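Give me structure tokens for this 315-residue protein.
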Amino acid sequence: MTAAPDLVIGVDGGGTKTLAWIAPQGDVTNTTIFGRGAAGPGNPRAAGFDTAQANIQAAIEAAFADAKLPQMAVAAACFGLAGAGREIEQARISSWAEQQGIAQKIRVCGDAEPVLAAASPNNRGVALICGTGSLAWGRNIAGHVARSGGWGYLLGDEGSGYQIARAALVAALQAADGRGQPTVLLDRLLSALGAQFPEELVELVYSPQMSRERMASLAAIALTVAPDDAVARMIVESAAKDLAKMVTAVCRRLQIRGGDYPLALAGSVILNQPLLREQLDAQLQNYEFGPASIWPVPEPVRGAVALARLLAIGE
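Here you go.
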């Protein structure tokens, strides 16, 4: 395979899709992108390593095709992947990428670091991901890193779309039983799931077709009705508090002071729901760990490109 020492690749792999961008080397603030590619899930733990690697390769091939370039080894590649936060996953993906000859220098990291890199040129601050799952990750001025959350839907993911949706379903069924406060969540969830009676929810929710992503999408119902429904409002406030605790835990471990860091946000739930962002900011202020600025990051792959550029020059 020929080499392209003046190009880098950034990859963002999640539970539903993988994005790959090809860009020129240069300053991390350079916004030039030559080619973009997309494929299926790139989370090696959720999709399996073989599937994730095949999708990463397909996304890279599509990016070269979009750039109208033959596939070649680039100077550096950064793979920011959900499900690759530990050394064991990173080593396995790195070994595969080296065997494929994707780049002269390769780095694999979790999916939070590119989020921060996309918002902060010096890669310092805190990133918060809130989509189907949730995770906070940060780096301080000394280069030390810390994380909080990200333990998955059975052990954690507090404040995530999945957990908001689950809380909404529980509250709706408690209302149906007469054990909880009345809430419009019951009618809204029945309608969204195509059910007439609460009893039908058991089969629908426990069905193999009810993926974690499908469950998490129901969080939008709670967030939509929260301004006018006391039960939904409490669920959203609780989720915001959980997310704020994650960010605060990272700040405390890294000795980052309130008002002295950028907060980068990624994930469909936190990006698409202004009410949750407002509640999060309010909770952080309560904990006296409000950020200096908040940066929505709709394209974390841009941060993976920035990290690949740093890798290419040895930083």
